[in-house]
Amino acid sequence: MEAVRELIWAGSYGATTIDQICQKAGVKKGSFYYFFDSKADLAVAAINEDWEQRRRPELDAIFSPTIPPLERLKKYCDYGYRFQAEIKAKFGCVLGCPLFTLGAEVSTQEAPLQKKIQEILDQKRRYLESTIRDAHAAGLIHAPDAEAKARMLFSFYQGLITEARIHNSLEVFRGAVHHTYELLGVKQPVPA
Amino acid sequence: MEAVRELIWAGSYGATTIDQICQKAGVKKGSFYYFFDSKADLAVAAINEDWEQRRRPELDAIFSPTIPPLERLKKYCDYGYRFQAEIKAKFGCVLGCPLFTLGAEVSTQEAPLQKKIQEILDQKRRYLESTIRDAHAAGLIHAPDAEAKARMLFSFYQGLITEARIHNSLEVFRGAVHHTYELLGVKQPVPA
DNA sequence: AAAATTGTTGACTACACGGTCAACTTGAGT
DNA sequence: ACTCAAGTTGACCGTGTAGTCAACAATTTT
């Protein structure tokens, strides 16, 4: 699963072959087919595992309701930058959001995989939504429609991070926090 | 070229084979290799042709300096929606921005193709940049740093349109204009 | 310790893919 | 009518890929 994640992420879904996956995982193809029906089947399992066991706990910590809303967003931006910087150090390339890139690639194929991706992306968006709702309640921003604002911010983030991948550059993260506050119309100049 | 564009767009770059391209184009493989060295070579030529002969003239018209800045953005949003709606009618799927999706997929491979994509995307961003500059000059918005604002808006658009592809839905375009004005902090309620 | 379950393997098939090439066709210039 | 360049073609090759399977090994159950 680690193998397939890295291969798909560093390259692409379509360009990743089962032979490559097996070689990287140090496993023979027979074993592969003992556990999975297809590449798509494995991909679903792999992204699900990564989400449940790694990303979700991390995001739960970042978006803890015990933290002031605007600070959550700052932490999230920092996390995003750190994450991509680590990847760049490891792979030599900025790889962006695995789910988003993969989702865009397979949107017209592999329906079950696509559905899983949509599910997880929807969950990620909910972190933003409740943060915005809290910020609105606290009078930090004016956002009566938290869902719409969250969709807006989420689209912006995904666009931003995908551009980081396309341009292989971490530069775009500069000012992410600032742009977030600008997009949300934060009333006070800047907190933390 | 038409064939390769549709295949890559409707599916993905990696999943598109030279055999498929030839079959769709009604041409034998020998002929393909007479004109192009590889799939990447053809892809570069195809997206370049599409840009120069179709998209650029369209965008030049939409972003004509003779049109008031905020109206340009509205026209652009309308154009984007119409474009995607036509595609959905034709292919049954929302396919998003070909360049952005493709750029994200091949970012770690096919350097020449990647470079061409970056080039065209940069040019597209410039339409927004000069529009924002004009809007600022006209006192319609406050945007002393037009380039940064343009990057922000561009990321938002690309994220939005890619989500349309991932969710196979035109819904996300609802309120695109409104969100654009919101993001830019348009002073007047709404013009045209 | 025997049996049953779970997992692993290498060898195999069938086929699709990228890529090549010599022979052939077309069309424009003379 | 002839020439020559531009373009087309089907047949072909080697390789990589998805997928299968019977035999073997490891682990757990009884």
Structural features, described:
2 copies of one chain form a homodimer. With 192 residues, chain A is mainly α. Chain A is built from 9 helices and no strands. The longest helix of chain A is centred in the middle third of the chain and has 27 residues, at 111-137. Chain A is elongated, with a radius of gyration of 18 Å. The A-B interface holds A 10-15, 93, 95-96, 100-101, 103-109, 114, 117-118, 121, 148, 151-152, 154-160, 162-163, 165-168, 172, 175, 179, 182-183, 185 and B 10-15, 93, 95-96, 100-101, 103-109, 114, 117-118, 121, 148, 151-152, 154-160, 162-163, 165-168, 172, 175, 179, 182-183, 185. The structure holds a DNA duplex (30 and 30 nucleotides).
